[in-house]
Amino acid sequence: MKKISILGSTGSIGTQTLDVVAMHPDSFEVDGLAAGSNTALLLEQVRRFKPRRVSVASKELADDIRTQLPAGVELYSGDEGLVQIAAGGDADYVVTAVMGSVGLRSTLAAIEAGRDIGLANKETLVTAGHLVTEQVRRKGVKLLPIDSEHSAIFQCLNGESREDIASITLTASGGSFRDLTREQLRNVTVEDALRHPNWAMGAKITIDSATMVNKGLEVIEAHWLFDLPYEQIEVLLHPESIIHSFVEFRDSSIIAQLGNPDMRVPIQYALTYPERWHSPAQRLSLAQAGRLTFREMDFARYPALKLAIECGKTGGTATTAFNAANEVAVARFLRREISFLRIEEILEEVLGRHPVQSHPSLEQIEECDRTVRALAKSL
Ligand code: NDP
Ligand code: MG
Predict the structure, then answer these.
(1) Is residue 234 a known part of a binding site?
(2) Is 103 touching ligand 1 by the criterion CB < 6 Å?
(3) Is residue 159 annotated as involved in ligand binding?
(4) What pTM value is reported for the model?
(5) How far is the CA of 115 from the centre of ligand 2 (A)?
(6) Residue 218 is labelled as binding a ligand
(7) Which site in 65, 249, 262, 327 is 20 to 30 Å from 209, CA atoms measured?
(8) For the chain, counts of helices (H) and of strands (E)
(9) DSSP character for 228?
(10) Residue 196 pLDDT > 90, yes or no?
(11) pLDDT 10s digits, 11-33
């Protein structure tokens, strides 16, 4: 029986993680659930999965639901609440599925408490990859990728030695605007951007897919997860999202991981590794798929991807600043304050002005995050 806690249980990854838990009731027990503000869904999850502890985004929300919780369930709130769910109680495994760098302190707390991590929250590694990976090594915990591309690479590398890797390639669907030119991007709406062709995901990551920022964040995530230099990490457009990513070895062999796009597969693998269990995901028929297509990544069409990789190579607080600016710009686009193309401009402007600090401490990272957010809001 594995005891798990989920940070972001009411989101797209959080609910799919609970789907996986529900399919294997004899193997998993839920210790803690942390939500943001969707208290109705959280209460439903509490009735169904019977966690011992829950948390919501604010004290006001906690006061709203206090009387509706079964006796004995501990209730927390805010950033401190996230840390409580991550590191309090007696879970052996924490799934980090909140959106954004708000997940950093709680992820570090979970690692410090000696828990294995199923990592969906890529912003954590982008913001402070050196701190997270150093702490993972020091505590000897497992950091298992949930992001489909990274799960694919992780599966392809099973038992292979690092010296034999020539390169890894992350595939990209191209997002909701993959068939539009930059000129045609001028007048696109929030609704257009939220219509992803292959995956149903949270709003922020769906916008990140349309700007290709998501692939940029994933390149940085891969750099930290697999300890590879940026020169060995490539990206390739693959509109069908069937090959989730692949590794090329020095003997020219390529190993890829394939499947229909369904996040429950990488989520479950992160939970059951090194075992593989039965999954309800629809089986892939290559005969039915018929044709898989690929295109070279177009960095002129997706300038934010180029910028993200440059920030990765610069290191230090460059990636912290990139992530913080992007979180603010995407939130402003979703509130209809700025146009789609303004997201990229804000990234360029913020990075143009940001004085990069190398080897930042946690406090310096949080300070950078705050300063950049204020700047990105003011532009
Ligand atoms: P969602 O927006 O669907 O879910 C985000 C979750 O975080 C919700 O449960 C939300 O709560 C919670 N949350 C937000 N703010 C806070 C806060 N301040 N305190 C506590 N909880 C908070 O996002 P996704 O599930 O799509 O993505 C989550 C992470 O996983 C992201 O980092 C994303 O990049 C990554 N990811 C997602 C994939 C996907 O298929 N969705 C694929 C690969 C990676 P509430 O809704 O109650 O407000
Ligand atoms: Mg991904």
Answers:
(1) no
(2) no
(3) no
(4) 0.98
(5) 23
(6) yes
(7) 249
(8) 16, 12
(9) -
(10) no
(11) 999 999 999 999 999 999 999 99
Q: Which parts of 88-143 fold into alpha helices (H)?
A: 104-112, 122-139
Cβ–ligand 1 contact at 375 (below 6 Å): no
Closest by CA to 308, choosing from 204, 168, 208, is: 208
| Domains, the chain, ordered by start | 2-145 (3.40.50.720), 163-260+297-314 (no CATH)
List, in order, residues 6 or more apart from 239 with CB less than 8 Å away: 173, 174, 178, 197, 293, 295
Tokens representing residue 123 in the block: 């912003």
Tell which atom from ligand 1 comes closest to the C-alpha of 123: 32
Q: What is the pLDDT of residues 43-100, one digit of tens each?
A: 999 999 999 999 999 999 999 999 999 999 999 999 999 999 999 999 999 999 999 9
Residue 96 amino acid letter:
T
ipTM higher than threshold 0.90: yes
Residue 334 is predicted with a pLDDT of 97
Q: Structure tokens of 36? A: 């943001």
Q: pLDDT digit string (tens) for 273-294?
A: 999 999 989 999 999 999 999 9
Q: Which atom of ligand 1 is nearest to the CA of 208?
A: 34
The answer to whether the CB of 199 is under 6 A from ligand 1 is yes
Q: Which amino acid is at 187?
A: N
Residues with CB under 5 A from ligand 2 (ion): 147-149
Task: Tell me if 37 CB under 6 Å of ligand 1.
Answer: yes
What is the DSSP code (8-state) at residue 163?
A: G
Q: Is 371 annotated as a binding residue?
A: no
Which atom of ligand 1 is nearest to 98's Cα?
7
